[in-house]
Amino acid sequence: MYDAVAKTNAVGESASADVDTGGCCPPASGAATCCGTNQDAAINAIISTRMGYTEDQIKAVPDGANMGLGCGAPLEVAKLQAGEVVVDLGSGGGFDCFLAAREVGESGMVIGVDMTPAMVSKARANAERGKYANVVFRLGEIEHLPIGNDEVDVIISNCVINLSPDKLQVFDECWRVLKPGGRVAFSDVVATIELPEEMRRDAFLIGACIGGASLITDLQSMLENAGFVDVSIEPKDDSRDFIREWAPGRSVEDYVVSAYITARKPEQTKCC
What we know:
Residues 82-227 form the Methyltransferase domain. Belongs to the methyltransferase superfamily. Arsenite methyltransferase family. Keywords: Methyltransferase, S-adenosyl-L-methionine, Transferase. InterPro entries: Arsenite_MeTrfase-like, Methyltranfer_dom, SAM-dependent_MTases_sf. By secondary structure, the protein is an alpha/beta fold. The protein has a single domain, classed as Vaccinia Virus protein VP39 (Rossmann fold, 3-Layer(aba) Sandwich). Helix content is 35%, strand content 20%. It has a seven-stranded mixed beta sheet, sandwiched between helices. α7 (117-130) links the parallel β2 (109-114) and β3. α8 (167-177) runs parallel beside α11 (216-226).
């Protein structure tokens, strides 16, 4: 399970409340989480600034698109080019999709995929309000993407893959839909040391993008097993400061950090 409503369900909150408030994990004393806090645009802007977004980026999207989600800014490492086709896994309100649309231009296309009907509807409304002709949103799971083979240049994602119980399947799907030479650029939470079993079973920590985090070495192996090359996983040690706020007093920052994850599908791909 992944995305906003999946996280909300993991901690026993209602899906409808998530879409209304723009948050997906119950915040601790109003603290920022990977899933946002509330519908206050000013607060969400502050959160996104901490994640690496610029003021220009935050102001460039339709109201309601920035929900204060994520653990980084994947476009920093995506290096998008005009005319590229981009997919965003777990696209939420469409924030990263709309930013990507600016970079790929009218000759490019951005596809947001989310498993939540209410979130897809929200993103589509945001796209209509912002008059984005090169952005579409599709209902689907990141383990089973509603996209054909070899159609995509770049796949981005922000703090979503950690929520999937089958990450190898996610990476296999990324491989399938990418064109030869295509690439992935994710921001996600990774484990720097093995999480205790009680943390992995904790519904709150799973929903807070912590309990499902994989070890860096395991993620690298999964990406390579899926066929990717040039795998790079760059932990951001300063992210421990905001991750600490996701579960105050539980020392989660000793186990996980946010990282940028990039990899490439070779031009000459495996035949079978």
